Amino acid sequence: LECNIAKAKDYMARFAAEGVMNHIDGASVPAISGKTFETISPVDLGKLAVVAKGGEADIDAAVAAAKAAFPAWSKMPGAERRKILIKVAEAIEARAEEIAFTECMDTGQALRFMSKAAIRGAANFRFFADQAPHAENGEVTRTPTQMNTTSRRPIGPVGVITPWNTPFMLSTWKIAPALASGCTVVHKPAEFSPMTAKLLVEIAESAGLPKGVLNVVNGFGEDAGKRLTEHPDIKAIAFVGESRTGSMIMAQGAKTLKRVHFELGGKNPVIVFDDADIDRAVDAATFMIYSLNGERCTSSSRLLVQNTIYEEVCNRVAAVAKRIKVGHPLDPETVVGPLIHPEHESKVLSYFDKAREEGATIAAGGEKVGDQGCYVAPTLFTQATNDMAIAQEEIFGPVLTAIPFKDEEDALRIANDVQYGLAAYLWTNDLNRAMRMTDELQAGMMWVNSENIRHLPAPFGGVKASGIGRDGGDWSFNFYMETVNVSFPR
Ligand code: NAD
């Protein structure tokens, strides 16, 4: 740990000295207003760096750069764009340790997960780069009198607005397909975690990405974020964040008829029937809520267990929760690090009080850990009912709410009785039941007898208040490109 902390200090030194600047048209620049804010580490609430506080003028400058860079980037043959984006992937891999350490200090996420997330960022670039050469291709359809040629073209400069949970990986998930499509980008990272967005743009430009193709403006949602969503030259907004922010962005973008893609909140059920492989179900359920600090949109935050095995499963989950190592994010043994920020920590702690008020039982955790930094104990609420706030609201921490159910019908009713519909996890050894249940579950993504394993060609996204649109495979390209049809007489 001591050695990792020393390494992190070295990686942070430049940010401490220079601050986290905006990055516009290939240059690192302060906010035009000269304003700054601080980013702190949730490890000890110490200041990591001052950050440029971008506003309208900075967004306007970044959009102008993205607009100027668009003709050359969009007209570059896809095979050439592919080469550059593969170089970006290689450059990310070469600096994966720096990215992971920076992310750990800025967000509190444990190193064991952030090392993988940095590599996943490179994989995202590789995957989407490989599709760039044929992204424009469509199809030809003929009638006796007409020939229709359908193809796609990049939509234009786009805005990418990201949250603070695994910010590097999530940003690449949006930015890589946008660039592969031929779009140019203005990225507004979350104010709680600005550091790795700066690393990404630097890495990308050092690997050959032309200036102005990717621009970063730091700042807050209500000014920098809002202006980006309202800017007439921004053709689409890819947003990841809370459902209520999505709804604000939709309103803000209405005037300019913005195309929007939303990845929003979740309250995802993991449903365990008594015929399931209980060992594996417990492993998966605990992994899906207690990894990444539970600050994960697809976390299994509601555990629905058949009443015949409810007590046994809850006892086992509570035992796992109590054994989990909470600690410094750079400690290789740590599973749960500090939550992102004191504000978010207060939100999570408030649910411990709510659970008590609502009459649930706290079977594990339910308290702050230590008196320094934003550490909370992995928590399990039992004897909960689905109408409680702890079952309905996204807590976004290592906090699991366990609810018993009677049969299939009851499980479905409870699972679907939330505003969200991002992911669902189902554990049963009855194939027919699995088919009946997955037919009725309201979720954009379901995993049967499995934890969340991401396959990049498969669609990713939610229904209900969890999102609009799909990422992954060709779905990403459909968002960043316009489909155009030209009809010729025969
Ligand atoms: P948030 O909505 O508070 O902020 C996300 C981003 O939006 C930030 O960059 C913020 O500055 C910006 N923003 C805020 N108000 C804005 C406005 N009016 N106009 C433009 N931009 C604005 O979300 P958060 O707290 O940073 O992130 C956590 C949330 O993200 C959780 O709800 C989580 O479920 C969700 N999330 C969803 C997915 C998914 O794939 N569905 C993935 C990761 C995170």
Automatic annotation (TrEMBL):
<dbReference type="InterPro" id="IPR016163">
    <property type="entry name" value="Ald_DH_C"/>
</dbReference>
<dbReference type="InterPro" id="IPR016162">
    <property type="entry name" value="Ald_DH_N"/>
</dbReference>
<dbReference type="InterPro" id="IPR011985">
    <property type="entry name" value="DH_HpaE"/>
</dbReference>
<dbReference type="Pfam" id="PF00171">
    <property type="entry name" value="Aldedh"/>
</dbReference>
<dbReference type="InterPro" id="IPR029510">
    <property type="entry name" value="Ald_DH_CS_GLU"/>
</dbReference>
<dbReference type="InterPro" id="IPR015590">
    <property type="entry name" value="Aldehyde_DH_dom"/>
</dbReference>
<protein>
    <submittedName>
        <fullName>5-carboxymethyl-2-hydroxymuconic-semialdehyde dehydrogenase</fullName>
    </submittedName>
</protein>
<dbReference type="InterPro" id="IPR016161">
    <property type="entry name" value="Ald_DH/histidinol_DH"/>
</dbReference>
<dbReference type="GO" id="GO:0018480">
    <property type="term" value="F:5-carboxymethyl-2-hydroxymuconic-semialdehyde dehydrogenase activity"/>
</dbReference>
<dbReference type="GO" id="GO:1901023">
    <property type="term" value="P:4-hydroxyphenylacetate catabolic process"/>
</dbReference>
<keyword id="KW-0520">NAD</keyword>
<keyword id="KW-0560">Oxidoreductase</keyword>
<comment type="similarity">
    <text>Belongs to the aldehyde dehydrogenase family.</text>
</comment>
<feature type="active site">
    <location>
        <position position="263"/>
    </location>
</feature>
<feature type="domain" description="Aldehyde dehydrogenase">
    <location>
        <begin position="34"/>
        <end position="485"/>
    </location>
</feature>
